[in-house]
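Input.
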Amino acid sequence: MAAMAEPLVSVIIPAYNAAWCVGQAVDSVLAQAGVPFEVVVVNDGSTDDTAGALAGYGDRIRVVNKANGGLSSARNAGIRVARGELVAFLDADDWWLPGKLAAQSALMKEQPDVGFCSVAAEVRDPDGALLGIWACPQWEGSFLAALFHENAAVAGSGSGVMVRRGLFDRVGLFDEGLGSLEDIDMWMRLAAAAPYACVSKALAVIVKRPDSMSRNREVMRDAALSVMKKNRCLLPSSLQGAHWRAGMASVYADYAKWRYRAGRRLDAVADVLRALMLAPWARGRLCLGLLRDLALGRPV
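Output.
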């Protein structure tokens, strides 16, 4: 479907040196049916031929060219020019399956209280092999509280989420000061402002690449801790104590495993001890088990 004069959905695709993949992402959006939409590709200072890869689409897409500023900066540039009532995000190296926009748009129409939603996603390797399904989360009570214990709860994340554009006026744009996990930070802020929902059918494809940002575990660790600390104030006061500390302890414990696998045994032990001190009751058994495994050289 070609871009419409009055789009319901603005699809934002940040692209940096994405000449090799952005075409598949754009094509998967243009193949969506049943919903008026526009496609906004933000060329974030690419030094390859991303501009050339986009030129052939003509007026079927809008291209925003800007100096390189990172993923959050590119997404924010797209939000600022978006014309749709709804904003959907897609990373340049992922793509959508047919019916994605229609399913989410229908959900948002049927549930007007929902501020943002996502879809389940297929996770594939660069050769196309299916690695698994990123399913919709299951939670009880506050979804915001659940996010503090399971950061990856929002299925599809940066390639699966759709947001009511007006909600950004309330929560702000993506944090350009974070080196990673800016999406988790945004989902927490959105969840504090409005309900979340998820389409259970896998309608996005996430490509897991060895050289992706998510492989830089030290950057992710620092960002995860920053996001948890920054957004503690969003929780109800009753959850800012033990609940938040248990979430922080889980972050330390998770990244302790990665540090151990990377050969940083002392750093791993230090993180487990931090986790134990934060939440001895809620995470004590987990931490003591990890310390035992690290001491015995067992795989974790």
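Strands lie at 9-15, 37-44, 62-66, 86-89, 95-96, 116-124, 130-134, 162-164, 196-207.
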